[in-house]
Design a protein that fits this description.
Elements: H1 2-52, E1 59-61, E2 64-66, H2 79-89, H3 93-105, H4 121-126
Antiparallel strand pairs: 1-2
Helix pairs in contact: 2-3
Length: 127
């Protein structure tokens, strides 16, 4: 009986700690999002200037260098994109539908337990 109470106590303490850590992470993530957005704004301005002025030199900073380069960003590999591409390669729509359905049904699925936190609407409006 005592072991059951200890397990329950540990469970309750773990819940309290989880909530505290989750709250801290929420604050950090909100700050990180603001920093990321501001950095992105400034990045755009710097890159626009560098591109307009054909700036290719490296800039020395306190702990290294900054350099400018062109990067490629690929769109996500979605089912609709796969279906579109297969439609361009395979004229039989039924075959395309079959392949896409096969991909959807046979992808790996991993099931795990997790915790989801919901916030009271009254409390979240105050913040």
């Amino acid at each position: 009986m005592e072991n059951k109470n200890n397990n329950r106590e540990e469970f309750i303490n773990n819940i309290k700690e989880w909530v505290m850590l989750d709250s801290q992470m929420k604050i950090i993530n909100e700050k990180t999002k603001k920093i990321r957005n501001r950095k992105s704004e400034i990045n755009s301005k710097i890159c626009d200037y560098a591109k307009e002025n054909k700036f290719t030199q490296k800039i020395t900073i306190s702990d290294g260098q900054l350099s400018f380069y062109e990067k490629k960003e690929y769109s996500a590999l979605t089912y609709s994109y796969i279906e579109k591409c297969l439609g361009e390669l395979i004229s039989d729509k039924k075959q395309v539908d079959y392949i896409v359905q096969y991909l959807k049904e046979n992808r790996d699925i991993q099931v795990n337990w997790d915790i989801k936190r919901s916030y009271d609407k009254k409390l979240s409006l105050e913040n």
